[in-house]
Design goal:
Elements (H helix, E strand, L loop, with lengths): L4 E5 L5 E3 L2 H11 L2 E6 L6 E5 H12 L6 H12 L2 E4 L5 E3 L2 H7 L4 E6 L4 E5 H9 L8 H4 L4
Antiparallel strand pairs: 1-7, 2-6, 3-4, 3-5, 4-8, 7-8
Length: 146
């Protein structure tokens, strides 16, 4: 389970070193094999352990092609998907297309989301947290108690 957030640096070539705690979990879960792709609603990247990606890919592929929203989701998630293996230093090289999509610069936030992670530009992440949502609260959240 991927939890918490960590601020990490990206070098000029687009490499990020995954923090030790997360790297160890990724090595346990997927031997360091991950997939990075575009988020469909936010300008950030989704990071999936390869086995998790292998489970959701058929669901994405099964989305209808004549529905504009579903088509966009397929274009983003499959079209931007890139497979990686963490190097000896626990680093990955994020391709320019993914860096541009998410607006990633030097400071990057790595956010745990349970079964996967998200990579955000530091400024974009805090702007997103501060932004007002026009979406109504889902029914499923109405019954939650913390």
């Amino acid at each position: 389970m991927f939890l918490g957030n960590q601020l990490i640096n990206m070098d000029a070539k687009g490499r990020v070193a995954i923090p030790t705690r997360t790297r160890e979990l990724l090595n346990d879960v997927c031997a360091g094999n991950i997939v990075l792709t575009a988020h469909t609603q936010d300008r950030c990247l989704l990071m999936y352990p390869k086995p998790q990606w292998d489970e959701i890919l058929p669901k994405i592929e099964a989305l209808p092609t004549f529905n504009k929203t579903a088509r966009k989701a397929k274009l983003l998630m499959i079209g931007y998907a890139s497979e990686f293996e963490l190097d000896e230093g626990g680093r990955i090289l994020i391709p320019p297309t993914l860096r541009d999509y998410a607006g990633l610069e030097k400071k990057v936030m790595l956010i745990g989301q349970g079964k996967n992670l998200e990579l955000w530009g530091e400024e974009q992440f805090f702007e997103r947290l501060d932004s007002e949502s026009d979406d109504a609260m889902p029914e499923e959240m109405m019954s939650l108690s913390f």
